[in-house]
Amino acid sequence: MDLGPSELPVNEQLAITISQRYLAGYWTHPVKLHLTPYEMKNVKEIAENYVVNIIDERDTRNCKGFRIIVEKDTGKVLDKDKVDYCHSK
To answer: 51 phi and psi, to 5 degrees?
Structure first.
């Protein structure tokens, strides 16, 4: 996803949008993100990154999802992990 200098450093809301678009394949326009099954669970700011937890709404128990790490300075996704929120510590 190309970000302009005026969008950097990334704020919390943009980190959420980047995470959702990353999971949707970046082709999904931000206006249409509500049509994807990826809903933000929570977001945490740590040092140089945001950790965005996303629920995959295709899982009816709302247990399965992803943890996405977005770098504040660049907006790049640094890591993605599958997470089971019902059985994680």
So the answer is: -105, 115
Question: What one-character-per-residue DSSP string does 25-52 give?
Answer: TS-S-GGGGGGSSEEEEEEEEETTEEEE
Write the single-letter amino acid at 50: Y
Tokens read off for 66: 């992803």
Query: Are 84 and 64 spatial neighbours (Cβ–Cβ below 8 Å)?
Result: yes
pLDDT in tens, the chain (89 residues): 678 778 899 999 999 999 998 998 876 666 677 788 888 999 999 999 999 999 999 888 889 999 999 999 999 999 999 999 888 65
